[in-house]
Amino acid sequence: MTVSSISPLGILVPLAQEAEALFALMKQDGATHTQRIGGRDYHSGHLFGRSCVLTLSRVGKVAAATAAAGLIHAYKVGAILNVGVAGGAAATVKVGDIVVADAMLQHDLDARPIFPRYEVPLTGMSRFAADAAIGNSLSQAIEAFLAEDLLQLSAEIRERFALAAPRLHRGLIISGDQFVNGHAAVAALRDDIPDALAIEMESGAVAQICHDYGIPCGVLRTISDSADDNAHVDFPAFLATVASFYSHHILRRFLQRTDW
Ligand code: ADE
């Protein structure tokens, strides 16, 4: 699907630290306008030259669904990009890696025996596809970021979070209304959904809303923890230093591209 260059891009961010950092960048790019709808602020303006509407969805699937519906109804966005952090689900996905979704699934959705496990009732679907053009463009932006921008992050921060050689992964992201931080819980998810790359709490809901409205959807997640007993001790510091740096520079490269 080609994303309209006239409609704004909706940027949906679950956590305040990342949303505030992106809002600060929007303010550097000209005037912004903020509207409060359903207890949420929607900031419209430009980010790296592109018309955007940014909202802090807050955490969880219902919050994300509400925010996505607000972007679609109130702003007629041409696409939604969900930006945030995630836990690594696959053993190969390490802290500091980046996952771009090809598809999203809600791992806590279970209406058996009426519907198959994970299926969104009455849709016949459990996996919702991300937009391929957005995914390809994001991936190219990320490859350039990893090759050219990452070293701008101080050696101290890279060492502190063991960011040796971060990689890009592309595939399935799973969402549920739990922060997964135990070995048994992540092992069960790996057994049940072996191709899951990353776990978070929103994109499955955003994908479902985008599917219902026929709006392209992209998901970009920085891996903040391994979702097991070693889940990050300093999550706020990771968000403030690593995740915000990643989203700033990846979005700069992505929004300056014209191939989506
Ligand atoms: N977001 C970041 N890390 C997560 C985890 N371990 N589980 C769910 N959501 C997350």
Can you put this structure into words, describing what you see?
With about 260 residues, the chain is α/β, with parallel strands linked by helices. The chain has one domain (about 10-255): Nucleoside phosphorylase domain (Rossmann fold, 3-Layer(aba) Sandwich), CATH 3.40.50.1580. Helix content is about 35%, strand content about 25%. It has 7 helices and 10 strands. It has helices at about 15-30, 60-75, 130-150, 155-160, 185-190, 205-215, 235-255; strands at about 10-15, 35, 40-45, 50-55, 80-90, 100-105, 130, 170-175, 195-200, 215-225. Strands 5-9-8-6-10 form a 5-stranded mixed β-barrel, surrounded by 4 helices. Helix 5 (about 185-190) links the parallel strand 8 and strand 9. Helix 1 (about 15-30) runs parallel beside helix 7 (about 235-255). The site of adenine has 13 residues, from strand 5, strand 9 and strand 10. This is adenosylhomocysteine nucleosidase. One of its GO terms (molecular function) is methylthioadenosine nucleosidase activity.
